[in-house]
Amino acid sequence: MSTNEKQDGSVVASATTRSAILGAVFLMATSAIGPGFITQTTEFTVRLGAAFAFAIVVSIVIDIAVQLNVWRVIGVAGKRAHEIANEVLPGLGYLLTALIVLGGLVFNIGNTAGTGLGADAMLGLEPKVGGAISAAIAIAIFLSKRAGVALDRIVVVLGVLMIALTAYVALTSSPPVGEAIRESVVPYDSGDDFLVITTIIGGTVGGYITYAGAHRLLDSGVSGVENVRNITRSSVTSILVTGVMRILLFLAILGVVAGGVDLAAGNPTASAFESATGEAGMRLFGIILWAASITSVIGASYTSVSFLTVGRTSPRLRNLLTVAFILVTCVIYLLIGTAPVKLLLFAGAFNGLILPVGFGALLWAAWRRRDLLRGYTYPIWLLVVGLLAWLVSAYLAYEAMKELQNL
């Protein structure tokens, strides 16, 4: 992969590298923007109103702290997260892999169900038919001769489409933007802001999502100390893309709620879109839900399989394993119709356990294992920021353990 070197030794990305970086950014972002993301954002907007803006801003800051460290350690080391974890503590990488794959498998059932519901709202297809067709589309991407290029392009196109359509609905719903901005700085104390913040952090950088973009960069050949600048920028950009989508969806729902509309309990997001844009709202919701779901199917499958392989695994074998992963989750969905609520809660709690395990191993490598980072001197300020974010992830794990006990 060609790059241009400046006189100061830094690397300027070539067109091919820029395309790979953009694909990694949107793979991470669209992996986060799934059916659960849409449901959470709607629920918290209805519950908190404009005060939800504060939780969004705080979560974005913490998410950036996590991704800055995760992408940099993986990118500089040139190894996947589970490989680094095994170097830090033998066997830890296998534990991390088990957690990632189990959580990814269960959530992918929910993602596949989301594609079915999206296809139903968009085209009137029976959900199982829509889910099967969507799975076939995802499989076709990984079976194509240029699977990597196809993956990068489709997540970028669908990511931009989701953002554009949600922006349209947000403008149409006429949200109280001034109030939202004020609440993001000086929030009204809702009493459960911290719980909301930790919930949406877990949904944005929990589980497999944490590693989706960084692993995609490795597979694209973007790694090493010489690419630190590209890695840093892409890690921040991925969270900003996710944040933009969350803010736009929040504003779209807020405009409807602030207007006094009571949303349908069964499908509040679709109800809000219909109230804002009329009969076309249901179709718009279907397109957004389908795009969010199929990109999450792609992201969950790709990232889960990346934990079952190593750097020397051939792309063809990796793609075939990803196809098998999609097939398994699709068959389970077709057999049971959707992921049982308790199973999804279990997977969500499991995701809360994953973040401090993998993130902690990467921070330890940054602090004590300079040999894994090819002699790179890790910035102290970034390590401190990472430690603070890890403390938040530890709290998430504590809450996840309580949730597991209640299931």
UniProtKB/TrEMBL annotation:
Name any GO cellular component annotation.
Answer: plasma membrane
Tell me a GO biological process for this protein.
Answer: iron ion transmembrane transport
Query: What does the UniProt keyword field contain?
Result: Membrane, Transmembrane, Transmembrane helix
Membrane topology for this entry? Multi-pass membrane protein
From the record, give the transmembrane residue ranges.
20-38, 50-71, 92-109, 129-147, 154-174, 194-214, 235-261, 281-305, 317-337, 343-366, 378-398
Top-rank taxon, per record: Bacteria
Q: Which GO terms describe its molecular function?
A: cadmium ion transmembrane transporter activity; manganese ion transmembrane transporter activity
InterPro entries xref list: NRAMP_fam (IPR001046)
Subcellular locations according to the entry: Membrane
Entry protein name: Divalent metal cation transporter
